[in-house]
């Protein structure tokens, strides 16, 4: 008697083999706003508006690149990462320093509340903004690992993508001051041209 293998069985076995042999191919998240980042970085893509920061009224995506030591307190690149916000602004919609500062505050306020399961904390944001480029500080309580007060330094850039009618905000963030070598690694995270 001849046995026939069902197509479903073959397909199932093929998927299992590919999953075991090449898991990064199936589960890597494709970043649309970054072209390069350090080896062993982790990435994440989240649709906007993000659930934990509903005060940010943007429709689009957030993309994150976490340096390898992101959640390891003993590492120099602890809590060092990049993120971008991409959205299509409405016609004649303009975002200035105050709007961006409010969005950053809402983001970190919401992140803290989500991680601490409802505790309230208002981060203090200071920011300088010149010609679409910004630098600043975020004073908050780091809720993931240390649960202690932390000052995050950030640099950012605003890019208008004319071809796609998108607005992109790029941020790099670290508790290390700007003279620390981790900033060279953060600056090696390259935005894609648009």
TrEMBL record:
Q: Which domain of life is it from?
A: Bacteria
Its name, as the record gives it, is Uncharacterized protein
Give the taxonomic lineage as stored in the record. Bacteria, Pseudomonadati, Pseudomonadota, Gammaproteobacteria, Cellvibrionales
């Amino acid at each position: 008697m001849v046995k026939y293998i069902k197509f479903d069985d073959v397909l199932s076995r093929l998927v299992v083999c590919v999953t075991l042999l090449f898991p990064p191919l199936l589960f890597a998240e494709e970043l649309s706003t970054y072209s390069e980042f350090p080896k062993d970085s982790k990435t994440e893509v989240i649709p906007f508006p993000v659930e934990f920061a509903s005060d940010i009224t943007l429709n689009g995506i957030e993309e994150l690149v976490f340096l390898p030591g992101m959640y390891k307190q003993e590492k120099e690149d602890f809590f060092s990462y990049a993120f971008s916000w991409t959205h299509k602004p409405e016609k004649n919609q303009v975002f200035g320093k105050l709007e961006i500062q409010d969005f950053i505050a809402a983001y970190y306020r919401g992140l803290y509340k989500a991680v601490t399961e409802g505790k309230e904390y208002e981060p203090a944001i200071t920011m300088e903004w010149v010609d679409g480029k910004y630098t600043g500080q975020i004073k908050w309580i780091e809720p993931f690992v240390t649960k202690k007060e932390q000052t995050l330094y950030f640099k950012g850039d605003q890019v208008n993508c004319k071809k796609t009618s998108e607005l992109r905000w790029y941020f790099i963030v670290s508790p290390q001051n700007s003279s620390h070598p981790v900033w060279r690694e953060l600056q090696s995270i390259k935005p894609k041209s648009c």
